[in-house]
Design goal:
Radius of gyration: 49 Å
Strand content: 15-25%
Structural class: alpha+beta
Order of helices and strands: HHEEEEEHHHEHEEHEEHEE
Bound molecules: adenosine-5'-diphosphate, magnesium ion
Strand order of the largest sheet: 2-1-5-4-3
Number of domains: 3
Number of strands: 12
Distance between the termini: 44 Å
Helix content: 55-70%
CATH class of the largest domain: Alpha Beta
Largest sheet: 5 strands, antiparallel
Length: 460
């Protein structure tokens, strides 16, 4: 699998192309070396033969057949690999160390390659020779044993084969090594970008320091991320600033409305208008306060009071607060607790988070539905978990990340009251408690409902 991915990388393909080009250059070169060394060896044999033949011819001219027979006999007895045969016109030997004429002799002069068996026995060996028809119908053959030559040929071929195999291996291994390093670095970049997309915007791609293309890519990515982070921070600051700056005038507005209400008769037209205005002002103030809380939590500027608390007790208190609302909506509220669930945290913030989850669960439950709050040790070791589930429509998987964002409200819940800040606050509270906030389907059946889980590090 890993190897398959390697083959698909651009680097590996490049390495392969280089290898092929390299082979295209090296193969003819190796071929040329082979061919020219063979030529050299053969020429040496041929030259030895030629000089030998010239000598014997000369001898024949000066001292006739008898002299030649004597010379051939002495030379044939020298064990230097020289092969000689002097034969009558019908091929029967006159002198020499070959038992019979080894091949055809159609021309008066020619070259032949032949195999022979040495006089002292042993294996059949390869040889090459030249033959002549001398005046008087006598044939002379002078040859050379070429088994040594063939062996050297074999050795050269072997060496070239080894060189070729080594080249191939080097090319392939080099290709794999370079592309694997490339993959590793790209994988590191991918890893970081995945982390960033998962919400850890502070992460940056590590540089290798070589200043190569990948480093440049990483640098550009990092610069881009810096820019994005600055923009995000600026955006959050703007919304927090607006909330902050408008809170004071809004509070003044609110007290004026209250003052005006006192002077009016209860139940009158103007009074009811003012009362509704007061309600909406309260709504806006709640939204602004939530926005500010989230901003402070995310910025880490809020001084959260850390105390040892029981998550079960905290949850029970919030559930009690929401019982009237549940009753009013005809929703059954069940609290299941196994163990106290000790942890350290800010009780007010945790209560607020649980309240937001309960508020949603009751809000989105159908009439006669059940909202279940459970506190139990989590599946993961040393953690405690609170889950709030309902029988409502749930949140489609694709939207589960999105709804944690500020002001995000799904289309399906437009007709319900709310500001879209509830889950953002839950996420922020989970974050400062080093906890996890998970949304999933509560049931396998339809409607799936929603199970919101908060997982915190627990105390023993
Ligand atoms: N229990 C739930 N069931 C179905 N949808 C939910 C549930 N809780 C939250 N949502 C969806 O997530 C959105 C954001 O929730 P929240 O941040 O609490 O904002 P609000 O409750 O003010 O609308 C809601 O508008 C709704 O679309
Ligand atoms: Mg809500």
């Amino acid at each position: 699998m890993q190897l398959l991915r390697l083959f698909r990388t651009t680097t590996f393909r490049l390495a392969l192309i280089y290898l092929l080009l390299f082979l295209a250059a090296v193969l003819p070169l190796l071929g040329f070396i082979y061919w020219s060394s063979l030529m050299l060896l053969e020429r040496q044999t041929d030259e030895t033969l030629a000089s030998e033949v010239a000598g014997l011819e000369e001898l024949y001219r000066t001292s006739q057949l008898a002299g030649l027979i004597e010379a051939v006999t002495t030379r044939a007895n020298r064990a230097d690999g020289g092969l000689y045969l002097l034969a009558r016109p019908d091929g029967t030997p006159l002198a020499g160390n070959l038992k019979r004429w080894p091949g055809p002799r159609d021309e008066p002069q020619g070259r032949i390659s032949f195999d022979y068996r040495p006089k002292d026995g042993g294996e059949i060996r390869p040889a090459r020779g030249e033959y002549f028809l001398l005046t008087g119908g006598v044939w002379l053959l002078v040859g050379q044993d070429v088994s040594q030559l063939r062996r050297i040929e074999g050795l050269i071929l072997q060496a070239l084969g080894v060189a070729l195999a080594a080249t191939l291996c080097l090319g392939i291994v080099g290709g794999i090594v370079t592309s694997r390093r490339m993959i590793q670095r790209l994988e590191a970049i991918n890893h970081t970008t995945r982390d960033i997309m998962a919400g850890d915007l502070g992460r940056r791609v590590a540089l290798k320091g070589s200043g190569d293309e990948l480093d440049q890519l990483a640098e550009n990515l990092n610069a881009m991320l810096d820019q994005i982070e600055r923009l995000m921070v600026a955006m959050k600051e703007v919304s927090a600033n607006i909330a902050h700056d408008l809170r004071t005038p809004l509070n003044r507005l609110r007290s004026r409305i209250e003052v005006a209400l006192i002077s009016l008769d209860e139940g009158g037209e103007s009074a009811s208008v003012l009362e509704r205005t007061l309600e909406e002002t309260d709504q806006i103030l709640t939204t602004f306060n939530a926005l500010l809380s989230i901003a402070r939590l995310e910025a880490g500027t809020v001084a959260s009071r850390r105390e040892t608390l029981s998550l079960a007790e905290t949850a029970a208190a919030v559930v009690e607060l929401y019982e009237p609302l549940a009753e009013e909506r005809d929703v059954r509220l069940v609290c299941e607790v196994s163990g106290p669930g000790h942890m350290t945290g800010d009780k007010d913030l945790l209560s607020q988070a649980i309240a937001n989850l309960l508020d949603n669960a009751i809000k989105f439950s159908p009439q006669g539905g059940t909202v279940r709050v459970s506190v139990a040790p989590s599946r993961e070791p040393q953690t405690v978990e609170i889950g709030v589930s309902d029988d409502g429509p749930g949140i489609p998987e694709a939207d589960r990340d999105r709804v944690r964002g500020r002001f995000v409200r799904l289309e399906a819940s437009r007709n319900q009251p709310g500001s879209g800040l509830g889950l953002s606050l839950v996420a922020a509270v989970a974050q400062i408690h080093e906890g996890r906030f998970v949304l999933e389907a509560a049931h396998r059946t339809q409607p799936p409902g929603l199970l919101a889980r908060l997982v915190f590090p627990s105390l023993p």
